[in-house]
Structure formats: structure tokens, C-alpha cells
Write a structure and sequence with these properties.
Blueprint lengths: L1 H7 L2 H6 L3 H6 L3 H6 L3 H6 L3 H6 L3 H7 L5
């Protein structure tokens, strides 16, 4: 008996007064993503250039060519 009563009583009022819309409006998510330092960090990552300028592979290939 308690199940049908609670389902049809508090459910409607809760959905009508949902504070979701105002919360999303004041959400600082958009500005946070713009000021996220993740983008510049990936750009200055020396991982890519380091691998490209690594003369290890060519040196080994040219070592047996001399003798």
C-alpha cells in the first residue's frame, strides 16, 4: 500500500521544482575549459621533437658501412 502512495505523491512536485536549469547556467565549466593549461602543455611537450632529433638509429646504421 505504501509503494503506490509514495510514487504518485512526491514524484510530480520534485520534478517540477528541479533546480537543474539554474545550476547549469551558473556552471563555470565553459570558462574552465578555455583557461585549461592542458592545451599549451601538450604543445610544448618535448617528447615529439626529442624522438625526431634522436640520431641513435642512423648512427647505428652507418657504423657497419665504414668497415
Amino acid at each position: 500500500m505504501a509503494t503506490p502512495d509514495t510514487t504518485s505523491s512526491p514524484s510530480p512536485p520534485i520534478n517540477v521544482s528541479d533546480p537543474a536549469p539554474p545550476v547549469t547556467t551558473s556552471s563555470p565549466s565553459p570558462p574552465d575549459t578555455l583557461s585549461s593549461p592542458a592545451s599549451p602543455i601538450t604543445t610544448s611537450s618535448p617528447s615529439d621533437p626529442c624522438r625526431v632529433s634522436s640520431p641513435s638509429p642512423p648512427l647505428r646504421t652507418s657504423s657497419p658501412l665504414w668497415p
